[in-house]
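Course assignment 3, question 2. Fill in each field.
Student: A.L.
Task: Predict the tertiary structure for the chain below.
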Amino acid sequence: MDIWGYGFFLRAMAAGVLCGFACPLVGVFLVARRYSFLADALAHIALTGVALGLILSVSPHVVTLVVVVVAAFTVEWLRQRQRFHADAVLATVMAGGLSLGVILVSKSRGFGADLTGYLFGSLLTISPTDLRVITLLVAFVATVVFLFYRHLFVIAIDEEYARAAGLKVTFVNAAFIVVAALTVGVAIRAVGVLLTGALVVIPVLIAMQVNRSFCGTVATAIAAGTGMALGGLHIAYFLDLPPGPAVVLLGIALLAGIVTGQQVYKTLNKS
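Answer field:
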């Protein structure tokens, strides 16, 4: 395992673990609220932030975080105030954000930007500064989630009941929207714009197959997310594959294996 002696690979592993921790932690609540499409929508909107950063000669990662947070609040405002169905709002916002991003990218080609890393992730190019920023963002995400864990759980189960019980639903939702947006911004660094939704949702689906309690699902989802990141990164290195797609495909393979194993087990028990 000589690769563990390389700084770039150690940074990639650290960033992968952080992303694999944060994405399922937030994803559990998104899936419970039937709002998992939010991560995918925000990730696609992030392409607009990347293009704006290139055009304005500002760090694309910084601009992306700002754009994603603004988009997340816009989606939540439309859902709450305009009474649109969440899936319709997300589909519309994602299409608009992606379309604007493509137009801006076409205008930014004169800047000689390679968008592959933004589209599919670039774990192996994580710098020490990037790692410090990711660590701070993930620490903030984890702190907010654990502080409001019980509130988020109740809201995820029944938002109307949470309001009737006197919980500060609007404030908690706003905090969670910020956390979800920052998580998407961090995940883009790992698996890219096109695959971020998968890193948020797949570990949760894996956990839901083997757990019945909510706490157990959270713990298992985090374990699955970090395992996907580390396993996919090593597979990508040894097979010379892009890290982001390798991470996601590993997760899909694990999910498919678990579901298939459960079906075989049920069939054998019936016979």
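Instructor remarks: The chain has a mean pLDDT of 85. Residues 15-200 form a domain with the ABC transporter involved in vitamin B12 uptake, BtuC fold (CATH 1.10.3470.10).
Grade: pending
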